[in-house]
Amino acid sequence: MAHSAADVPAHRLVPPRVTLLDAFAGPGRYQDGEPGSPVFILERLLNHSAVDRMQLSPRRVHLIFIEKDHARHQHLLGELHTRFGPLRDLPVHIEVQRGDAGTDSVSLLTRLGAWGHYRCSTNHQVVIDADTRLVVVVGRPLAGNRNDCKAWEESSAKAAVGKTLTIADGGYPGTGLVIPHRRQRGQTELPDWQEEHNKSRKQVRARVEHVLARMKTWKILRDCRLKGDGVHHAMLGIARVHNVAITG
Which of 22, 34, 184, 231 is the one with CA 20 to 30 A from 221? Predict the structure, then answer.
């Protein structure tokens, strides 16, 4: 739905608040030199041709980046500082948190009063071949606050994958997906073989998250999120364009 400025008295035109949360922010820059989604987002925002008319302010625009892995979180902080200088001096409010997407996203959005935006988000389950980086499954979109374990099954992604060995992050316990080993209660460190498994899987996940970071930046996802099945068709289109770009 669009409203022209002429329909509303000028004194009532209040710039909207914007809250963007990237719950799987990554390290900021990948091994092949490609920028991660936090860097990509900030570069496009701050260098946009219309930035002077956006009325950016820390009160209006909140950007939240969450990364669970300690090393990747630290690398992200360093990358952002190197690229953009002190984050407190930027014209938007930025939080770089180390935490879990499933548990920490809700509390952060609540603290920032962003539920008005969050209710319009969607949970998309996407499966990517880590070797070829091709998107092989795009599940049906669900409400943004849907638990990932339930979304995996309800989106039809689980049925599409079948018995194929599939690696996921730690937000999918009990789903049959391969997730990172975690320390049990009272356990100070993981056995060497579990640490090695986690390291190997993290390398695979990095390739997948790189693809996801690029897919999430398409403007059409925002434009279509409230238009029936529009967001699903948009996601399918993005996946196909991505695959064509890789395969030629």
Answer: 34
pTM to 2 decimals? 0.56
Q: What are 182-229's pLDDT values in tens digits?
A: 888 888 888 999 999 988 888 888 888 888 888 888 878 766 655 567
- Euclidean distance between CA atoms 151 and 158, whole angstroms: 9
What does the block give as tokens for 244?
Answer: 């064509």
Q: Using an 8 Å Cβ cutoff, are 37 and 26 in contact? A: yes
Work out whether strand 18-22 and strand 61-67 pair parallel, antiparallel, or are unpaired: parallel
| Cβ–Cβ under 8 Å, residues 26 and 101 | no
